[in-house]
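Ticket #4471: structure output looks truncated?

Reporter: J.K.
Steps to reproduce: submitted the chain below (302 residues) through the standard prediction queue, then opened the result file.
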Amino acid sequence: MISKILVTGGSGFLGTILKTSINTNDFLLIDIQSCFEKKFNIIDPFSLDEPYKYDVIIHAAGKAHFVPRSLEEQQEFYDVNYKGTINLCNAIDELETKPQAFIFISTVAVYGLDEGSNIEEDSPLLGITPYAKSKIQAEEYLKSWAEKNNITLSILRLPLVAGPKPPGNLGAMINGIKSGKYLSIGKADAHKSIVWAADIATILPKLIEVGGVYNLTDGYDPAFGELENAISKALGKSKLIKIPLLAAKAIAKVGDLLGSKAPINSDKLDKITSTLTFDDSKAQEKLNWKPTKVLDKIGEIV
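Returned output as attached by the reporter:
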């Protein structure tokens, strides 16, 4: 029997990869945009009129990779990530037949940590940015809603997500190295968790069955220097510009004074030079998670 999956955020970076990676012999994917005659906005209440019985919802729509500079821009995170989730659930409530499973794409930002090793899913959710707080609120709402409706809920807390032409910090690193403007700082030995986006599709059948909250990583957590060197090699760049950590700290202090216009400040520098990794052993045990080492995929990313 073919399972019918409704995907939100299907035109985004991760949503696009999920749509092309899921085995369509077993699943029929329906982008939520196709349910409407014209483009809709998830921040507004809506109804699902599509004549399908949805077996699974993958909620990948969300606002990320953006630093708010005003109260209005901060509010956008709550409107999309939290209120948008409520609007989706309200639309599902109107359906005659409820889905079996709901998969929510969340983030490791909910932990609110800039440094740490092998952080587990039961760690406190201390995120204070609008992005993190809006995802925490959405997670909490979904847990109550799914339990009330007897729907199997999966929450995937993702770190840096890798795939072809990635957005966010990884995309910025690639563009910086490509343009010759990237600076490698100090020993570049801080390790960061990262995950290959297409791997997420491989655990879909198990997620539908068991649910749960999971960190997902590539199981290796490369050092910054390893990523820099692999990207440089793939781009045919022979040498990176390196600066000592002390010099970087001095530049960051200037950035603190310049504000949002500065390419780097002390906060950004601390994040770059601090190890932050997450434990995905729960996914390995319960979902048979066997991730791809992202360093082996650099050629497909750049």
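Triage note (M.O.): checked the attachment and the full token line is present. The two ends are 38 Å apart (CA to CA).
Status: closed, working as intended.
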